[in-house]
Amino acid sequence: QLQLVESGGGLVQPGGSLRLSCTASGDALNYYVTGWFRQAPGKEREGLSYISISGSTDYADSVKGRFTISRDNAKNTVYLQMNSLKPEDTAVYYCAASGSWPVRLNQNDFDYWGRGTQVTVSS
Q1: Quick one: pLDDT at residue 11?
Q2: What's the confidence (pLDDT) of residue 108?
Q3: What is the DSSP string of 18-71?
Q4: Residue 17 pLDDT
Q5: Is 9 helix (H, G, I), strand (E, B) or coil?
Q6: Phi-psi region of 66 (alpha: psi -120 to 50; beta: other; left: phi over 0)
Q7: Which of 20, 71, 84, 94 is the S-S candidate for 8 at Cβ 3.0 to 4.6 Å?
Q8: Is residue 121 helix, strand or coil?
Q9: What is the C-alpha to C-alpha distance for residues 83 and 32, in angstroms, rounded to an integer?
Q10: DSSP strand pairing (10-12 vs 117-121)
């Protein structure tokens, strides 16, 4: 059973950067599409980005040009580099994986989920 654990969240000032990590156990992440989602209080869960088995990527318009997803197969880890952070990026960030293809940036297309890591952007 694939298990995912997120790390790297925290408090950062507007304009700052953070790198989130999603480390897998139980199986190899490069057999799955891996995505990042976030959920702010009172809002629906939003799909941000995914990386496919082949390494192709997709991004939501809200983060395109600011966030970058990548994968290190040797470490069984997917990263989300977040730059130029804004207060509206404040949310709990989740890593998710899917054994299906194609996928959309929609939580219903992903089968495995981490517990999330809090990101707060504030001065």
Answers
A1: 98
A2: 96
A3: EEEEEEEESS-GGGSEEEEEEE-TTS--EEEEEE-TTS-EEE-TTTTTTEEEEE
A4: 98
A5: coil
A6: alpha
A7: 20
A8: strand
A9: 25
A10: parallel
Residue length, the chain? 123
Kindly write down the DSSP assignment for every residue of 84-120, as one continuous string.
S--GGG-EEEEEEEESSSS--SSGGG--EE---EEEE
CA 110 to CA 115: how far, in whole Å? 14
**Amino acid residing at 111:** D
Residue whose structure tokens are 């989602």: 37
Beta bridge partners of 120: 11
pLDDT score at 63: 97
State the chain's maximal CA–CA distance in angstroms.
Answer: 40
